[in-house]
Amino acid sequence: MGRYTGPVCRQCRREGQKLFLKGARCYRNKCPIEQGTGIPGMHVARRARKMSEYGEQLRQKQSLRRQYGMGELQFHRFFEEALRRKGVTGELLLQLLELRLDNVVYRLGFAPSRRAARQYVLHGHVTVNGRKASVPSMVLTQGDVVAVKDKPKSKDFATKALDSAAAAQPAWLQLDRTALKGEIISVPTREQIAPIVDEQAIVELYSR
After folding, report:
1. DSSP secondary structure string, 18-43?
2. CB under 8 Å, gap of 24 or more: what pairs does 37-45 form?
3. pLDDT tens digits, residue range 189-204?
4. C-alpha span between 119 and 156 (Å, rounded)
5. 37 with 13: CB under 8 angstroms?
6. Counting Cβ atoms within 10 Å, is residue 58 exposed (0-12), middle (13-18) or buried (19+)?
7. What is the phi/psi pair of residue 200, to 5°?
């Protein structure tokens, strides 16, 4: 599956909920979900019918995958990693997704959206534990420190994003706004993870 380059609001409409793909703009009244815009497509009314159990599970998976801006194969690799670890597979999957470098950069407020955070990381604007990090899918651990590079362009972007940040700071992250760096002080619990999704349905989908 190729990278999606179309309008991101269309993805929110398809899932019937806000995926927060456009940062602060998702909190405005112009959001299609706020306006009650329905599922995209010409023949939606013809397709309207009770969704099967498989369909419900698929929608949960697609919703979570799109929130984190991941391709199908990459998302499945994260699921397989969660499956290998000891614990509740669904919760482990969410924790792995939250601990991705691009997501941590977004959660700290250094970028307005996960898509912007991914590009920010790819362009080499951040460091992890003092070392350059340019792989958005890198999974961090407790104690890791993510910092913005000491360059005008890097700092200007992060500062503007912090000033316009609409989401609250997660409790599992500690932000030093002056130094433009943040530390992972704990692994996020299920209650601290934002996605409104039934992760057990995703586990059941992949178990078919």
Report:
1. ----SGGGGGSTT-TTTTT---SSTT
2. 37/13, 38/13, 39/13, 39/14, 40/10, 40/13, 40/14
3. 998 987 778 899 999 9
4. 15
5. yes
6. middle
7. -65, -35
Digit-coded pLDDT (tens) for 18-57: 555 555 555 555 555 554 555 555 545 545 567 788 888 8
List b or e across 95-114, with b for residues whose CB sees 16 or more CB atoms inside 10 angstroms. Answer: bbbbbbbbbbbbbbbbbbbb
State how far the Cα of 114 lies from the Cα of 105, in Å rounded to an integer. 8
The structure tokens 């360059």 sit at: 151
> Measured between alpha carbons, how far is 39 from 161 in angstroms, rounded to an integer?
30
What is the CA 88 to chain-centroid distance, rounded?
Answer: 20
Q: How many helices (H) and strands (E) does the chain have?
A: 9, 5
pLDDT band at 4 (very low <50, low <70, confident <90, very high): low
